[in-house]
Automatic annotation (TrEMBL):
This is Stress-response A/B barrel domain-containing protein. Residues 50-152 form the Stress-response A/B barrel domain. Gene3D superfamilies: 3.30.70.100. The keyword Transmembrane helix applies. PROSITE patterns: S_R_A_B_BARREL (PS51502).
Amino acid sequence: MVNISGARPHALRITIALFCILSVFLFFDPIGFASTMNHNLAPPGSTTTVTHIVLFKFKPDLHDGAVDVACAKILSLKENCLRPNSQHAYIKSITGGRDNSPENLQNGMTHAFVVQFENTDDRNYYVEQDPAHLAFKKEIEPLVEKITVLDYVSGVF
């Protein structure tokens, strides 16, 4: 038989040591874990940039001129979408272009546009109420076969 009566003081010391180490991590965060966690899920009105990605699959029978005009109109939304109370443009940026990926993973999408908003309120107004955007959506509808939209806040997973 093995005598384990002397193990009790060691178990107590190990428990105290573990408690102290965990307390250091809990209160002082020496490895920065808590500071890298993003608990902000971008509530309405936040000032966290919202990125709005729109992918288009234009109908194949369109001539390039119609697609070019549609793309120019998308880019002009930056100046045409105005805050209702101030009549100032609220879109931070819009970029876009024709797909040129060699990966062949486009699922038929031909063009991509990235729109950035200062906050979720601006994005929500754009999607749900902005007259310039709503008119554009109706205008482009007959030109597209498929649209995919993704929105995200950087670092919020």
